[in-house]
């Protein structure tokens, strides 16, 4: 498993070293769907997160209203396969969503995007039964 990831580690180290690999993406690699998704995610962030982040920082309340809207707009659980109720967006789409939401508020961003920490190992290694049971819960 690790040997297969050495190539990916090289890309990461090159990115942090300021070197550009031909295999890393650039803004020119974005499709129209990617551009539309990026615009929608930034619009959501500007309207729903940035305008309310200070309130949640002060009150320390959980931002349920924002979470529900992010879920309804497809910004949560977007990596879950279609057969389990997800959108099965590609990695670049998920990066664009994460970037936009993190721009607004990293705390609220963590609340919105933390399901991916639980979903990813299930998607990679879970049986069909486990995927149906647990990924389905994230979609509801």
Automatic annotation (TrEMBL):
Record Gene3D superfamilies: Acyl-CoA dehydrogenase/oxidase, N-terminal domain
Pfam family, one: Acyl-CoA_dh_N
Acyl-CoA dehydrogenase/oxidase N-terminal domain: residues covered: 31-138
Protein name per the record: Acyl-CoA_dh_N domain-containing protein
GO molecular function: acyl-CoA dehydrogenase activity; flavin adenine dinucleotide binding
InterPro entries, A to Z: AcylCoA_DH/ox_N (IPR013786), AcylCoA_DH/ox_N_sf (IPR037069), AcylCoA_DH/oxidase_NM_dom_sf (IPR009100)
SUPFAM superfamilies: Acyl-CoA dehydrogenase NM domain-like (SSF56645)
Origin species: Meloidogyne hapla (Root-knot nematode worm)
